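Weekly sync, protein design subgroup
Attendees: M.S., D.O., the rotation student, P.L. (late)

Item 1: inverse folding check
M.S. brought a backbone from last month's batch and wanted to see whether the design step gives back something sensible before we order anything. D.O. pointed out we never logged the input encoding, so this time it goes straight into the notes. Structure tokens as presented (319 positions):
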């Protein structure tokens, strides 16, 4: 192996999770690599631990016995006791950045603490991916890079995708599309499938829901499709936020521009779920959604039928 090649394989990115045997994020059985850091702040985000690039401590208070073992081992004094009814309780100082040493995680007798974020090399991530090569071959699966936002660490992602393609592994990325076009084009030659979010077609409403406007997102999407890259749209569905007939109709009218492109592969509908709520508590973060935004099966069937009326391929992803 050349020095240059070795240098690339030792390049690092901050990862916060690896999920094996996924069947929802591209074709076949897949391994998902979650990149830390995201420019959006979607109110319904189910991966709050992926929003910040920095290390974070997740704290399961219901498991904590308030023994204080974590306090003396932390080099930046994140852990401390706070007076409360019934005696001192363990708390975390969120104004001080965790350095990722994981000493607190190691000494906790009840596994109440976990440090989110791991700096991994391309070689290390490839080793994990290759463990399930037989599943990819038998199912038509592969690897999907997501987050957070994968385009926030574009050089690593492009190098990892390149190595996966060299090994004959199908590649996909999940992206909000909110990035420089150059970042997407850096990855595009080694990406078999873009799973590309459209969260709201109206830019002002998109800003209210995610913290960013959508012009760049739609422009980048148009460029990817017109340049021949395979794209499948992912539309989160949230009752009362982006599910009105007018909103969906405007989205479909925009997408009809691409209906006859063979590389435009249709739409996945992602109904709202509450799977990430507990993680907000573990990070001392406020979950912005207070009401139930989920749908009944017959409501989803109606939306799916409405989209099919525009002669577009659509599938509801039901977790």
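Designed sequence read out in the meeting:
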């Amino acid at each position: 192996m050349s020095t240059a090649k070795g240098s690339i394989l030792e390049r690092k990115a901050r990862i916060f999770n690896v999920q094996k045997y996924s069947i929802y994020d591209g074709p076949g059985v897949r391994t998902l690599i979650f990149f830390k850091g995201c420019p959006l702040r979607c109110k319904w985000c189910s991966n709050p631990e992926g929003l910040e690039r920095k290390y974070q401590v997740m704290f399961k208070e219901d498991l904590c016995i308030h023994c204080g073992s974590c306090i003396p081992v932390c080099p930046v004094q994140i852990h401390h006791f706070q007076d409360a009814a019934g005696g001192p309780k363990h708390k975390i100082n969120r104004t001080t950045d965790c350095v990722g040493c994981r000493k607190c995680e190691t000494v906790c007798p009840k596994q109440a603490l976990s440090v989110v974020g791991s700096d991994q090399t391309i070689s290390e991530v490839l080793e994990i991916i290759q463990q399930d090569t037989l599943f990819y071959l038998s199912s038509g699966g592969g690897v999907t890079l997501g987050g957070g936002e994968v385009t926030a660490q574009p050089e690593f992602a492009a190098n990892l995708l390149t190595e996966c393609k060299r090994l004959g592994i199908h590649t996909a990325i999940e992206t909000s599309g909110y990035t420089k076009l150059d970042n997407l084009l850096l990855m595009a030659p080694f990406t078999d499938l873009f799973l590309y979010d459209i969260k709201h077609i109206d830019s002002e409403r998109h800003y209210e829901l995610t913290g960013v406007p959508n012009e760049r997102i739609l422009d980048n999407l148009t460029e990817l499709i017109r340049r021949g890259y395979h794209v499948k749209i992912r539309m989160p569905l949230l009752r009362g936020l982006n599910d009105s007939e007018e909103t969906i109709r405007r989205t479909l009218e925009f997408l009809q521009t691409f209906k006859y492109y063979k590389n435009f592969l249709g739409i996945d509908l992602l109904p709202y779920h509450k799977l990430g709520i507990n993680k907000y508590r573990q990070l001392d973060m406020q979950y912005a959604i207070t009401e139930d935004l989920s749908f009944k099966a017959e409501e989803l069937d109606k939306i799916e039928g409405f989209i099919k009326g525009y002669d577009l391929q659509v599938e509801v992803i039901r977790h």
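Discussion: The radius of gyration is 21 Å. The CA atoms of residues 148 and 238 lie 20 Å apart.
Action: P.L. to compare against the previous round before Friday.
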